[in-house]
């Protein structure tokens, strides 16, 4: 019996998110105390950044899994997004912040920790909405792309 395509999309996103979190969050948890010390305020800040990092990782994964399911040039498009949009434009042009996973993650971190690492960070509620929308839309696009995918028999 075939597995529903939405379940395949969900498993892809969950597994990739878990692996990404395993690779990205431990350095955040180690860096915080090394830089700021081990008192309770600094540990709370470190945990806030770790939680925001997890949320951002899940949103990135959902978006890039969808990109991989939709196009054969996912790596090139993903690099373009990260380097051009996230790296340059989202930090310079104010309106583009609302279309940036990085800016949403920084806004969530600022809300969780009470510390802002920029001049104009997004509100925490807006950040949560942006991260949730990217995650859900990424999942739906992946499921839709997998439904349209056809396995062809060999000649």
Instruction: Choose one word for the global shape.
Output: globular
Determine the fraction of residues in helical runs and give it as a percent range. over 70%
Oligomer type:
single chain
Number of strands: 0
User: Structural class, judged by helices and strands?
Assistant: mainly alpha
Span between termini: 24 Å
How much beta, percentage-wise? under 5%
Radius of gyration: 18 Å
Mean pLDDT figure: 88
What is the helix/strand order? HHHHH
Task: Detail the poorly predicted runs.
Answer: none
Distinct helical segment count? 5
Largest sheet: none
List its traits.
mainly alpha, globular, 5 helices, 155 residues, 0% strand
Give an account of the 3D structure.
This protein has 155 residues and is mainly α. It is 77% helix and 0% strand. The protein is built from five helices and no strands. It has helices at residues 5-36, 40-70, 74-92, 101-113, 124-148. Helix 1 (5-36) runs antiparallel to helix 2 (40-70) and helix 2 (40-70) packs parallel to helix 5 (124-148). The longest helix is centred in the first third of the chain and has 32 residues, at 5-36. It is globular, with a radius of gyration of 18 Å. The mean pLDDT is 88.
Brief summary of the model shown:
This protein is mainly α. It has 5 helices and no strands.
How is this fold's topology laid out?
Layout: H1 5-36, H2 40-70, H3 74-92, H4 101-113, H5 124-148
């Amino acid at each position: 019996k075939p597995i529903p395509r939405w379940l395949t999309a969900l498993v892809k996103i969950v597994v990739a998110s878990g692996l990404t979190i395993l690779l990205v969050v431990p350095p955040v948890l180690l860096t915080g105390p090394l830089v700021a010390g081990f008192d309770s305020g600094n540990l709370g800040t470190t945990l806030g950044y770790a939680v925001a990092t997890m949320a951002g990782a899940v949103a990135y994964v959902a978006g890039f899994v969808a990109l991989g399911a939709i196009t054969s040039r996912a790596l090139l498009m993903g690099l373009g997004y990260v380097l051009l949009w996230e790296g340059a434009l989202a930090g310079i042009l104010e309106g583009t912040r609302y279309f940036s996973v990085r800016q949403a993650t920084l806004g969530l971190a600022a809300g969780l920790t009470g510390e802002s690492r920029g001049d104009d960070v997004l509100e925490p509620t807006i950040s949560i909405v942006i991260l949730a929308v990217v995650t859900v839309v990424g999942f739906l696009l992946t499921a839709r792309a997998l439904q349209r995918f056809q396995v062809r028999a060999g000649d």
